[in-house]
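Exercise 7b. C-alpha cells:
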C-alpha cells in the first residue's frame, strides 16, 4: 500500500508556474550581457541551483553567446561567479513565492486523513528553504519532512533526497512511496529512486504559465501545451501525469490495486 507521498515544492505545491527562480536566473545572465530565453532558463529547473546555472552555460546557444562576449567558453569559475550573484538575489525574493497552489492544502488534508505521510524534496538550498518553509507554513502548508540538496551527496536526478525522506518517514520498500513533481528532473529523481512517479502539469515549470495566463489561454492552445508537457514527462518514465495537484489522491487506489497484484514501478 502507498504509505507516503514525496512532493516537490516550487511549481508543485507552492509558487504556481515556478516563477521565483526563473526571474532571478534571467537577471543574473542579463547582468553579464547574456540574453538567455525563458525556455533556456526553465529547461534545467528542479536541479540544485548551482547545477542549474552550469546546465544553462552548457547549452550550445548560450555557450556561443558567452564565447562571443568573453572570448572563451564558460569555465567553472564563471559558474561560481554567476551563482555568487544568484544566491543573494534569490534569498531576497523567495519569501514572495510561497503561496500554495490551488488544491494543495485540501489534498494534503485528505492524504493525512487517510494515514499517509508527507515528505518533500527541492532544488532549493537549505538556506532558501529556511525562508520558504516559514512562509508556506503561515499559509497552511507544512510537510512532515524536508530534504534539501545540502543534506545529501548530490541533488536531482540522484535519488538520495527521496531515500532520506523514506528513512525519516519510516517507509519501505520504495514502491510504497509516490514522488510528485513538475519538472523533468523531478521525474528522473522518482524513477531513479524506484518510486511511483507522477508529473503535474498545470502550475508546473514545464508549462511555464501563471494562473491568469492559463485562464485566458485559448482552450485548443492550452490543450496542445498540456499534451506536450504530458508527453515529455511520460518519455522520462512518469507512471502517471495529472493536470492539477488536487487530482493526485485519485491515483492512490489505482496504484494500491497494482501493488496488490504484485506490480511494481
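Sequence design result:
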Amino acid at each position: 500500500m502507498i504509505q507516503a507521498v514525496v512532493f516537490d515544492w516550487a511549481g508543485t505545491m507552492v509558487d504556481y508556474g515556478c516563477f521565483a527562480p526563473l526571474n532571478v536566473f534571467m537577471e543574473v545572465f542579463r547582468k553579464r550581457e547574456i540574453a538567455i530565453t525563458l525556455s533556456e532558463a526553465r529547461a534545467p529547473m528542479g536541479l540544485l541551483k548551482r547545477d542549474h546555472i552550469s546546465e544553462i552555460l552548457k547549452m550550445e546557444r548560450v555557450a556561443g553567446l558567452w564565447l562571443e562576449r568573453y572570448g572563451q567558453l564558460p569555465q567553472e569559475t564563471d559558474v561560481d561567479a554567476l551563482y555568487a550573484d544568484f544566491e543573494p538575489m534569490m534569498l531576497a525574493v523567495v519569501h514572495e513565492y510561497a503561496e500554495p497552489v490551488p488544491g494543495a492544502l485540501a489534498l494534503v488534508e485528505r492524504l493525512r486523513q487517510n494515514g499517509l505521510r508527507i515528505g518533500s524534496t527541492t532544488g532549493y538550498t537549505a538556506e532558501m528553504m529556511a525562508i520558504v518553509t516559514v512562509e508556506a507554513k503561515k499559509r497552511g502548508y507544512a510537510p512532515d519532512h524536508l530534504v534539501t540538496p545540502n543534506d545529501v551527496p548530490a541533488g536531482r536526478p540522484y535519488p538520495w533526497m527521496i531515500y532520506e525522506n523514506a528513512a525519516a518517514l519510516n517507509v519501505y520498500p520504495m514502491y510504497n512511496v509516490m514522488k510528485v513533481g513538475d519538472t523533468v528532473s523531478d521525474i528522473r529523481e522518482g524513477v531513479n529512486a524506484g518510486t511511483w512517479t507522477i508529473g503535474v502539469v498545470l502550475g508546473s515549470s514545464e508549462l511555464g504559465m501563471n494562473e491568469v495566463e492559463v485562464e485566458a489561454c485559448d482552450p485548443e492552445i492550452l490543450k496542445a501545451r498540456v499534451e506536450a508537457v504530458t508527453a515529455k514527462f511520460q518519455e522520462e518514465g512518469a507512471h502517471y501525469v495529472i493536470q492539477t495537484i488536487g487530482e493526485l489522491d485519485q491515483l492512490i487506489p489505482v496504484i494500491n490495486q497494482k501493488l496488490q497484484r504484485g506490480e511494481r514501478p
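Instructor comment: The mean pLDDT is 96. The chain is about 50% helix and 10% strand.
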